[in-house]
Amino acid sequence: MLEIKDLKAGYGEAMVLNDFSVEISHGQITALMGRNGMGKTTLLKAIMGLIPIKSGRILFNDTPIDNLQTYLISKAGVGYVPQGREVFDDFTVYENLRLAALGSSKQNLALLPKIYDWFPILKERLDQKAGTFSGGQQQILAIARALMTNPKILLLDEPTEGIQPSIVHEIGIQLSRIASETGLTILLVEQNVDMVKTMAEEIIFMENGKLTARCSAADLKNDDALLHRYLTI
To answer: Which of 17, 173, 205, 224 lies 20 to 30 Å from 110, alpha-carbon distance?
Structure first.
């Protein structure tokens, strides 16, 4: 579904991704792990067209997207939840969700009942301003907003960062449920090991802008050596 070939990207003259290559299979939940500064966020930004690519290719369903503007990448079916949530604080829950569907088909608006089913708190607080939500509630809204674009693949950057454990658990359960019900592919940047072990089917590790290892969730549960190697400072 998503294929990245020999990708080089970064900021100015500083290359963060160095010939990064990976394939993400359709319908799979893949976790991307590594120490801070290894290029995980940069990779997601490169996929979304938010930073320039120096060389390499990004293919989505066998179609190049590395030369597209961000809104066209989104229209092609790539959803994105950035680190830090970035909801519109002065907009209500409904306005945040409605905004995500602007310019899309009526089919996207028809997703609202499903969104409310997955995240009941949003239906309960439709008229509440997002800025009054807790960090965890804002993250739920950010995920729901991305789902309003009806993506085929969802990129999430550190969705549990700074969130209370009860909501971390809820987010993990609902993302797994959504993937199971819809066939949604998920690429998840995450440092919460318990969540990764619970959700992910495959884990890939980054170091210095390159893919350095990959394993199944079962392998990770049985052997923590990779975690110590790629996550321990």
So the answer is: 173
Q: Which amino acid is at 233?
A: I
Helix (H) or strand (E) holding 4: strand 2-11
Give the Cα separation of 113 and 93 in Å (integer).
14
Pairing of strands 153-157, 78-81: parallel
Give me the CATH number covering residue 143. 3.40.50.300
Runs of H (alpha helix) within the chain: 40-47, 70-76, 93-100, 106-109, 112-118, 120-124, 135-147, 165-182, 193-199, 217-222, 225-231
> How many domains is the chain built from?
1
pLDDT in tens, the chain (233 residues): 999 999 999 998 899 999 999 999 999 999 999 989 899 999 999 999 999 999 999 999 999 999 999 999 999 999 999 998 789 999 999 999 999 887 665 567 789 999 999 999 999 999 999 999 999 999 999 999 999 999 999 999 999 998 999 899 999 999 999 999 999 999 999 999 889 988 999 999 999 999 999 998 888 877 777 777 777 75
Q: What is the CA radius of gyration of the chain?
A: 17
Answer yes or no: are the C-beta atoms of 138 and 87 closer than 8 Å. Answer: yes
CA distance 126 to 20: 41
Q: Are 50 and 70 in contact (CB under 8 A)?
A: yes
CA 25/CA 12 separation, integer angstroms: 31
- Size of the chain in residues: 233
Expressed as residue numbers, the domain containing 121 is 2-231
Tell me phi and psi for residue 196, to 5 degrees. -60, -45
